[in-house]
Design a protein that fits this description.
It is a single chain. The termini are close together. The chain contains seven helices and 13 strands. The chain has a single domain, classed as PPM-type phosphatase domain (Phosphatase 2c, domain 1), CATH 3.60.40. The protein is globular, with a radius of gyration of 17 Å. By secondary structure, it is α+β, with helices and mostly antiparallel strands. Helix 6 runs antiparallel to helix 7.
């Protein structure tokens, strides 16, 4: 038997005045939007687990309110996933994005700039799928290679997609973080997410979910080095977080690592 082990750290970093990030790991979230928050998860393979990272935007507490609202909506709607079929599960997550979007839109009546990214991973330990809006990311480390399985919804990426920019071009920094999609932007729609295909979870894979506060500070090579070090999920989280802080900690940092473990050996 296998089990899913997960650990998450969320921290305001060195520069920001508050922590506008939030997360979901099983039942755990940062319910008080604390400047420092940490949680651990153990679940049985074969049952659906939901994990997510939410990077709030808006300032004046608008971002942390949006990310907290969305983390709570996903917590409330993913507690009883049980053994859904994959089709039913996908429908459930899509509908939850709509509920989350409407909840943030309602809050935007008071805070016009309130919004958040939403990057959700669902897995039963055998397969995984990503549902996503914004520029928080999901990485898979497999066979000592690092793969990004989410897609940044930014102005820079959109211009890359349509051929305005090409690999190696110098891109204005603001365009790398100017979101083209986020939760809370669709006043009339249900905020359908980007969806990856179903990805088989190989035994030695490491899964990383993170906000841009990690990958802006740490190169892909550094992230890969940390994920391939062979440490447990908790220690890997701490190592990645500490690297992001060492390299500046200029934004809120949320780091979540998931791995499979033999239930008899942990």
């Amino acid at each position: 038997m296998k089990k899913i082990i997960g650990h998450v750290i969320s921290n305001r970093g060195k520069v920001r005045e508050n922590n506008e990030d939030n997360y979901l790991l099983g039942r755990c979230l940062n319910a008080e939007s604390l400047d420092e928050s940490e949680a651990h998860f153990t679940g049985e393979a074969g049952e659906w687990t939901c994990a997510g990272v939410f990077d709030g935007m808006g300032g004046e507490a608008g971002g942390e309110i949006a990310s907290r609202i969305v983390s709570q909506v996903f917590q409330e709607n993913t507690l009883q996933l049980g053994k859904y079929t994959k089709d039913k599960l996908s429908e459930k997550i899509e509908k939850t994005f709509g509920l989350a979007n409407r909840a943030v839109v309602e809050e935007r009546k008071n805070r016009s700039t309130c919004g958040t990214t939403g990057t959700i991973l669902v897995t039963d330990g055998n397969e995984l799928r990503v549902f996503h809006r914004g520029d928080s990311r999901v990485y898979v480390m497999r066979d000592k290679q690092l793969y990004v399985v989410s897609k940044d919804h930014t102005l820079a990426q959109m211009k890359m997609d349509i051929g305005i920019y090409h690999l190696g071009d110098e891109i204005p920094e603001r365009e790398n973080h100017q979101l083209t999609e986020f939760i809370g932007m669709d006043y009339d729609g249900d905020a359908l997410p980007y969806e990856s295909g179903w990805i088989k979870w190989e035994e030695n894979d490491r899964i990383l979910l993170c906000s841009d506060g990690l990958y802006d500070m740490c190169s892909p090579q550094m992230i890969l080095k940390c994920l391939t070090a062979g440490e447990a999920a908790e220690q890997t989280c701490h190592t990645l977080f500490e690297k992001a802080m060492d390299f500046g900690g200029k934004d809120n940092i949320t780091v979540m690592v998931l791995q499979l473990a033999d239930i008899n050996n942990t």
